[in-house]
Every structure is written in structure tokens, then in C-alpha cells.
Prior knowledge:
This protein is an alpha/beta fold. The chain contains 20 helices and 32 strands. Helix 1 crosses helix 2, helix 10 crosses helix 11 and helix 13 crosses helix 15.
Amino acid sequence: MTLQIKSLDEYKQAYKKSIEDPETFWADQAKTFEWFEPWSSVLNFKMENSSFKWFEGGKLNITVNCLDRHLSTRGDKTALIWEANDESRESVKLTYKELLAKVCQCSNALKELGIKKGDRVVFYMPMVVELAIGVLACARIGAIHSVVFAGFSANALADRVKDAGAELIICSDFNFRGNKCIEVKSVVDQAISQGCDSVRNVLMYKNSNKDVDFENGRDVWWHDIVDKQLPSCDPEIMDAEDPLFILYTSGSTGKPKGVVHSCAGYMVYTCYSFKNVFQYKENDIYWCTADIGWITGHSYIIYGPLLAGATTMMFEGVPTYPEPDRFWKICKKHSVTQFYTAPTAIRALMAQGDKWVDSIDMPSLQVLGSVGEPINEEAWHWYNDKVGKKRAQVVDTWWQTETGGIMITSIPGVTDSKPTYASYPLPGVQPVLVDPKGNTIEGNNVEGLLCIEYPWPSILRTTYGDHDRCIKTYFSPFPGKYFTGDGARRDEDGRIRVIGRVDDVINVSGHRIGTAEVENAIDEHENVVESAVVGFPHEIKGQGIYAFVISDGNIADKNQFIAEINGIVKEKIGAIARPDKIKLVEGLPKTRSGKIMRRILRLIAADRISDLGDTSTLLNPEVVEKIISEKTEV
Ligand code: WTA
């Protein structure tokens, strides 16, 4: 069994061993899984080339470890609980045996559609059980899944499908969220019409009774092709380093990156971190509210919990529907023991008042996880006091799409929790703070750029189709280290607090959005000359999007113009990237070499004018005053 740390001493010992002898440490973890063939070497790497080979020579299939492996001891245990958006619908429960059968049926259907090892399959689906089944079915036959969050626009979906060269898109007809019924398939159709030539088929799950366009020859109904298949399918034998999935995420430049994770290292690390961070015990009910379209859903709804033989829950809906006590009602209904959500959800529910949470007792809750963005002190206390009623431990987990699993966190019952601090690294994780020149900042009570010094098993392997970009983004800024893009501080006891991104990525409601992506969209408007987008503090979302826009002057109606800009961003990226505020300006502050001074725009957006300091070295200092006094802000 995977090692589970139970005391501070055990944590210290495990940490020490993981640093002094990482290969033995991780080999001990890897031994707890089923392999078709053992590995010949634990780790070979060259950080500067983004070359990481964990468990080289080993052969495995992650779904054997998620599913088949548990049948002898947990075959009839509930693997997955699904809660519908509609409160009156019954929960769906699948045992490990049933889930394996469904995954195999889907695997066989994928094979019938000609999908084979190495092919890319894009998912554009709501949080239905079939999404989890489909993802695992890909892994079973060695196809590479790439889940695209169903809130992205057709344009954004098309970009990802093209970049991945996907042969198949798996979607649903519609998506139910709150009181909305959202078209899904029509977005897929629009995306395909934008030149997704690699797509041969669309596999569509019927999620409603409404009519939907259907293209004979290309489109296939899930119930027509999956339900008739045999419930067994031999797992594909995968090399340890074969890719498992691609997940697109935003970076500093305009184009999202396809972060690639591989089979063995990801398996070992997500299982290890899941068991420790959530201190999972055999009869616990674990619920992560993330969407499977993000890394949190991959690692901590599907893979980590299933690898650990846990009962994991999936929720289709939103926290405020039908009322703002939905999360708490579900926690009570299923006696949830570990609950994992994002600060933005906590803040949104906090804003609805205490009565919703006060009236529901949830004595089963033991661990309350937070992820995706820094959690502010007020939200931390509300989570601890109101949701956990001071009986559960809040764990603030810092990690990234690129890290595959949780890196810095408290461990319940083992290390304490300090508000706003992610705290200590998990075993195997070696965080360091560096200054902009790359010098390591020693000691405590210091701030710097967060890097990781040594590979851990689920470190990203590449960015799909562009290995140089991976090297440049993560491994070149500080040679010999992985650069996270985050700034952090270390307190007097060595705990780490992650402050936020230091690059041009903003974190809106826990969703990563590149400012360049939003600028590119805004600039598509024919009357836009130039734009600059920055983040600003937002009470609920953590960060909001603030766009400064220069028009060509041919605008009859400013409100109309701003509405059009919003429409373009929604069309190009999705509603999640729509600016919260747009200010029409005549110029943007620039350095003498012509670069936009974002620092100044961030301060203006945050209404911190008094912190602006000396702006006289700008190419156009007069513009700052004009921006501040400009009244058109919508
Ligand atoms: C931020 C989500 C502070 C951080 C798993 C990181 C956090 C980015 C925390 C990754 C946390 C995530 N405290 N900041 N506990 N967790 N972040 O790739 O800026 O969607 O770089 O992965 O979210 O976002 P991503």
C-alpha cells in the first residue's frame, strides 16, 4: 500500500528520505502498483532539456491500477457517485466492477471508431459520468485524452483540436448548469467548421430529449455504439513514459500550451499525494467540486482517488443552484469526509450570508481542501469556522497543471494549517525562492520567485508539438530549476505562501487566463488600435480582468463598442475571459523601447494611484494622468 504519513515525525522522515534518496523513495511507492513489466531505472533526467524519464522500461496501464487492481478487494465498493444539477434526480452510483465494465464498453467503442494507441481524443463535455468513463476508456486503449472545459468557445475549442490533431471529439448534446440549458454539440459543429480537418468522428452522449443537429457518417450516438459493446477490454500495454493526456492551459503568450503528462510518474504521484493530502481512509466519501476540464478534476476527481481505491464524487451543477446551500446539502446527503473546492466558490457562498451553511450540520467533514488561487484570510476563516465548524482541517494546496499533482500543502493531522499559507512541500518536492537573477534566497521571512529544484514524478514532460517552448517557459529562466511563474514568501517557520503569478497570467475564479489571449481577441475588433489587459483584485473572483482599449476614434456609441468587445472575447475564448472592466483610453504608458508598462496599468486598475511613483522615465508620461482621469469605464 502507498505510504500514508501519520505524524510529524513520519513526515520529516519521509521528506528527508525523498531528498537524500529520491530514487528509492519513489521506487517504494511505485512498487505498490501493478506493472506488466518492472522498470529498469527509476529516474534519468536533464532539467535543462525538459527530459524526464521516470520508471523507464516499466510497462503498465493506469486503468488497471485505477480499476482492475481493486476488484478482488473492492469490486462492490462504490467507486463513483454522481450528483445531478437537478436536485430531484437520483444520485448515480457505480461500483468498481460496474465502472470497469462501462470503461471497457467505451474502450471497445473507441476501437470500433478506429481509435488506437497514440491517437488524440478531445472531450468537450459537461460533468456527466460518461466524461469520466470516456477519459478512462482512452487511457485503457492508450489514446491520449485532451479535455477542453465546456465553457470555452467554438474558436478556443477549434484551436485546441487543431493543435492536438484530434481524430475524435466526444461531447454531449446539451449541458445543464443551474437553470441554464447550454448547447454543446452546436459549439462542436462550429469548431469543426473552422478547419478541424483531423476530426473523423463526433461521439455524442445524449443528455436531454431535445433535438440536435446530427451529421450522418460523422456523428455517432453514444448509446448506439457504446451500449452494445462487450464489458471487457484488454488494457493496452503502455511504456512508463508514453503520454497519458494533454491539457491546454494559458501562459504568457497568446497561444495556450498543451501540457503533456505521461503514464507512470503521473500515476505514482497523484495516488501518493491524494492519499496523504486527504488522509483518505477506506470508507470515506471524497468530493472535489472542480470541473474535469481542469487539472484538478483530472488528478483529484478521476485518477488520484481511483488509484487509491476511494469513493469519488462528481457534481454536474453549480454551488448556488437551486439555492446557495447546494454544496452543504450534498455533503450532508452523502456524509462527505473530504471536500475540495476553490476560494472563488467559498467567497461566492460567503457573500450569500451564513444562514445557508449554519443550518446544515456536516459532522462527517474532516478535511477541507482549497485550490486554484491564493485563499484570502477572510475566506479561510469562513471555510474553517462555518463550513468545517472548526472540526475539520483546512488544507491550502498549491500546485499547477504542469506539476500534475499537489506540491505544497498542509497534511491533516500531521502539519498545522496557517491561514493563507500553503505551508510545506510534500515529500519529493524541493521548492526554492530565487531573485530575478536566479540567486537562491536563503533564510526565512523572505520573498522571491518560486522554483522547484529537482524533478518529481508528475512533472510535465513537454508542451504538445513544441518542446522548445516547454524548455523556454519552464526550464530556461533559471537553469537547473523548474520555474513556476509564481511569487511566494517563506515565513519564520519555513512555511510557504504563494502570492500569485509574476507573469502575464491572471487567475480569474481559479481559471488561468493569459492577458495576451484576451488582448488578441480584443484587437480583432476593427475599431481597436491597441489594447492592454491586466488583472485587478476582485472580491469574489480573486482577480478580475481589466482592459485598457485605444480605439481609432470612429466610435458612434461607446457602450455599443464595449458590448462588441465583450462579444468578441466571448466568441474567441469564452465567457470566462470577458473583461470585468473596460476603459477607453487615448494612449498606453510605454517604456522608451516601446513596451507597455503593465505595472502602471495594474496599479491604476487596482485604484492604487498613490503607489505609482515616478513615471517620468516613460516615453509618454502625460498619458498616465489622462488614463486616470478618463471616465469611460464600463
Ligand atoms: C495558482 C490549478 C495560491 C498559482 C491546480 C498557480 C494557487 C496557478 C494555489 C495554477 C494556492 C493554484 N495558492 N495560488 N493554493 N493553487 N494557484 O494550472 O498561481 O489551473 O501557478 O492549476 O494557480 O493554475 P492551474
